[in-house]
Amino acid sequence: MVSNVKAVVELVDVWKMYKVGDIITWGLRGVDLKVFKGDFIAIMGPSGSGKTTLLNIMGLLDKPTKGKVFIDGIEASKLSSRDLAIVRNRKIGFVFQQFNLISRLTIYENLELPLIPSGLNAKERRERIVSTLKSVGGDEAWLRKKPTQLSGGQQQRVAIARALVNNPSLILADEPTGNLDRASAKTVIQTFMNLNAKGQTIVIVTHDPEVANCTNKIYVIRDGKIVSVEEPDKDRCLALRA
Ligand SMILES: Nc1ncnc2c1ncn2[C@@H]1O[C@H](COP(=O)(O)OP(=O)(O)OP(=O)(O)O)[C@@H](O)[C@H]1O
Ligand SMILES: [Mg+2]
């Protein structure tokens, strides 16, 4: 299909049904969405509107009940579960509200985990880890520490580095500032802005208008459907405030 050649991810009429016992819930009800290289998109909407469902389907963590998902032009439903895992590991980086770093491992080891299948040798892995950590404003002294020895904002920047370390086509972040105080949220959103300025494609789910206003486009979702697309107001971006 020619139309999706340039999209990093494209959703075509995506529906998602959850069935628990006899109870059916529609998480998504016909979503069409294209994300292009260099986009920085916020997804906003009330609790239960389908934001996490949408992100999980974009990131190949979950499959639609109906509709198609293309990643870099590859149709996800055509892949075996093994190939799906490979595409997910190479092309998509996830950032979560709870950071999800492994507490018994050092920061270095946390950042090394996604690189294990890459075929890089130990020296190449170290170089990649150090440069990626620096790209999120991190400090090499963090590498020997355990996650709990860092602040929340520092841990989230490590989590962003972990998402980035394989040079993915797309970063997906679900409420990445939801667990942070304002000052830490500001450093995290500033980190995303810096990465996007260097060309990284990013989609973030947020409840916070001051975070959404730092992106380049806001999609509003309600009852499983995208109901509007809004232009952010940069004067109300958290990271650009005094
Ligand atoms: N695993 C599941 N099983 C059954 N229903 C689910 C499941 N996951 C989500 N849902 C339902 O699908 C709908 C969308 O949920 P989703 O988690 O995507 O919302 P959300 O917008 O991320 O909400 P929040 O802002 O609270 O995180 C909700 O009605 C939810 O109850
Ligand atoms: Mg959610």
TrEMBL record:
User: What sequence ranges are listed for the domain ABC transporter?
Assistant: 9-242
Q: Which GO terms describe its cellular component?
A: membrane protein complex
Query: A GO molecular function for this record?
Result: ATP binding
- Look up the domain of life of the source: Archaea
Its keywords, alphabetically, are: ATP-binding, Nucleotide-binding, Transport
SUPFAM superfamilies in alphabetical order: P-loop containing nucleoside triphosphate hydrolases
For this entry, the protein name equals: ABC transporter ATP-binding protein
